Amino acid sequence: MSELLPEVLIHLEKLVSFDTRNPPREIGTGGIFDYLRSQLPDFAITVTDHGAGAVSFFAVRGAPKRLFNVHLDTVPSSPAWSADPHKLRVTADRAIALGACDIKGAAAGLVAAARVTTGDVAFLFTTDEEANDPRCIAAFLASRHGFDEAIVSEPTMGQAVLAHRGISSVMMQFRGEAGHASGQHARDTSALHAAMRWGGRALDFVEAQDHLRFGGLTGLRFNIGRVEGGIKANMIAPSAELRFGFRPLPSQSREELHERFRSFAPAGMLGSYEETFTGPSLPSGDVARAEERRLAARDLADELGLPIGNAVDFWTEASLFSQAGMTAFVFGPGDIAQAHTADEWVALDQLASVTAHYQRLMQSK
Q: Is 129 a catalytic residue?
């Protein structure tokens, strides 16, 4: 165990005590940010309110070219929690609290490491990741920030993750013709039938992508999350709404996939097709550019002496930094399987080992 682990747990206890659930994202510029400011006295700090509970905390010491990014918002807590989610519980092998894994444990490790080092380092703490509303990072990337590299501290079990899928969420509206369901025409004029036919075609297409590969990832991830519409069994549904999401490989074009999914709607029955959220893959770019950026991230992780892990299916904001031209990868304590769960936890040995890496990377040269 790292000699810094006791201090990490002190910071984690404080960080999880602040309610940063998103939604409702009722987060201001004080609270958790006042605590962070008090713990980083040798940093130049800028706190920016981007509206709707999206707050960024940018802290810089020296003149670094590498940025550590951590989101401080959490998902809501469920009734399944066995104790107060904002009170840290520590057992022989884990720390339990809302956000302990995703990702206040990483924030605590960064703060602890910063307090015992003097090297150049920069942190960007944000509060909008769980809302799929990246105002904080968008504003940072739009500024003249001068950074070349980004390490996003999502839970990767202490391994540098160089690639992950993109993400897209879509809302579709189907239109039909209202009428009595006794007629043969009901089969072809129901908006709900149109949605079902679309779903069958989409699922067949997704299954046909299983042979595709990139950086250890295979196939296209897809899910129909919600279908609603119609009135009752003997009435033809005049309208239906379907929501689905897909997670492409870095080598797949999101625009081309949208065209394919749109084309599966029965002729004349698609009312609207709206992408409600999108995030690029890591690394971003066309196939050649994505591979070039993946290799650059691998070289950086090797240079920094970090263990390299497999690509992952979940999405992170590292892809936004990659899309902006920075060399970016994901590296933090915890297992994504524990994120968003009741009694969320992070393993103490991972907190200790990742903090030791953070400390080493922040040492003065």
A: yes
